[in-house]
Amino acid sequence: MALVHMMSVIVTQRLQVLSIGYRIAQGSFEVRGAEDSKLGRRTFLAQERLRRFFAFCYTPCMSITVYNNPDALPQLIGEFRPVDEWQAHINDIFYGLRGGRLREFSQTFAAADYRLAHALAADYYARALAREKTPRLIIHEWGCGNGNLAACFLTHLKTIDKDNRVYPRVRYVLVDAQEATLHAAMAHPDLAQHKDRIESLCAQIQDLATVEDGSVDRIICNELWNDLPTKLLLRKDGDVEEEFLRPNLSEARHAEIADWSGFVQAFDAKDIKALDGFPAFLEDIIWEKEYRKSDWKMIPYRKTIADFLKKIDEHVLVPVNLGAYASIKEAKRLLAPDAVGFSAFDAGTADLDVLNDPEKPCYGQFGGQYSFMVNFALVEMVAKHLGMKVSKIEPQKEYVGQCLATNVMSLMDLLATHPRSHVLRGWEQDKLIVETIGALNKTYESPYHRAIEFPLSTDIPEDGRETLQRLLASLKQNGIPDTIAYLTEEELTSALQDLEAIGYDRDIIESALQAPAQNVDYYHHFLKP
Questions:
Q1: Is residue 63 exposed (0-12), middle (13-18) or buried (19+ Cβ within 10 Å)?
Q2: Could you tell me the CA-to-CA distances from 399 to 76, 141, 147, 396, 516 in Å, in that order?
Q3: Which domains, from first to last, does the chain contain?
Q4: Residue 8: what are its φ and ψ, rounded to 5°?
Q5: Which of 70, 130, 246, 524 is the most exposed, having the fewest neighbouring CB atoms within 10 Å of its CB?
């Protein structure tokens, strides 16, 4: 379709962003507000999109391309619709096509590591023992990922429940809207020993009609809210506008599709079977954007949202996480009167200064999938409107550390402290990561066996590649499971000598362990009716 001189906003994954607390440029970031410590240094991101919120697209940094050659234009595959509608559409296709291969496109803190799951299990065990005994304890995990969180949670719960006071009463339900994701999660090898404790439910989390009111004791969701429908709203001249998007397919990918009409029909219908027969296309979608007056009557919790928007300057976009609100409403219905509660872990902020910053992160893409920053400040307002009496927002790493009675930091946080991290080239970054894991593995012992997945850079010299491949092959199966794994203070102390041998500074590491969370970071939101 010839669209002469079309102005197209391309939603890319450029890591050239600016926000309060972070500057990320060409795969690097710096920690600000740390002038009194040695933490004010730049570092790099590992290749695997290790920490998802670092890859959020910043709205002002989106590139704009002017197309002057009609023969080189991308081809329309849909019309302008609100961003939350296209987000839901694209994510349904993403999970339908790639639900069984999630770790190829992004990692979460629960995809391979066990520390978040163990923290949740220890927390649940203590809370369950503190109440009067109930015959059945139903736990829901909404958005079950690859099943690793469930496997590690149940394994640790069984281990610490030496008197069989809690584990035998647990029924753990993995809930997901995609059959492919559920099938892959249920096949996790470490769930086999818990087969009499688990079941699956394929359903949208905002409408679990088959689950009885007041029947659930605990609900967990990890990096789910950022995948659920989210609007981008702003105030302008007294009105509320929202972002609309229109999808096009790149000219190069269009040329590879012989049955164009069939492809467009399958894309519109989210026909996964038909789309699977076409060339991979999700990363080749080019988006146009514009702003239109919002149909305010169609937005739930209008008064609460309107009150929040009064705190935000005009022309500043803010995420409005409608899917998160729907999940809280359903959780309120399902949780028993004496339930432990609902825990959501996700990337975002509750800081109004950040939310009022026009350069804050809004959303990003991972393998074609949309993920939005969570506006925890507005989520909390809606939760209270819905009747949640307990609402606590805390940094995720603080929750993990408190539950496990230690200080923790991620491997990415550790890599950020290396004095040379900001000057290393791509393959040198790989070398540092692999050497760091090797140094930690001398004393690190995981209770699980996980083969680390770490694709090497393409620019590594041949002799260097052979060396790194040997190092990777030598890493033990019960060592560091991935590049965002949590490390305890005790593990870091045990490895300090080996870490210093590859250039780390003891004082910087010890300071990093005590460093507060960033304004945009991973947070735990605990809710209880």
A1: exposed
A2: 46, 18, 21, 5, 12
A3: 7-97+230-319 (no CATH), 115-228+324-347+375-405+521-528 (3.40.50.150), 408-514 (no CATH)
A4: -120, 125
A5: 130
Residue for token digits 């009675």? 405
Query: Which one, of 513, 448, 511, lies nearest residue 487 by Cα?
Result: 513
pTM score of the predicted model:
0.86
Q: Between 489-501 and 426-441, two packed helices, what is the crossing angle to 10 degrees?
A: 120
Which tokens is 351 given?
A: 């800081």
Report the relative pairing of strands 218-222 and 137-142 from DSSP bridges. parallel
According to DSSP, the residues that pair with 19 across neighbouring strands are 22
| Rg of the chain, C-alpha, whole Å | 23
* Paired residues of 372 in beta bridges: 363
Report d(CA 479, CA 512) in Å as an integer. 22
Cβ-contact 522, 347 below 8 angstroms: yes
**Angle, CA of 222, 147 and 127, to the nearest 5°:** 60
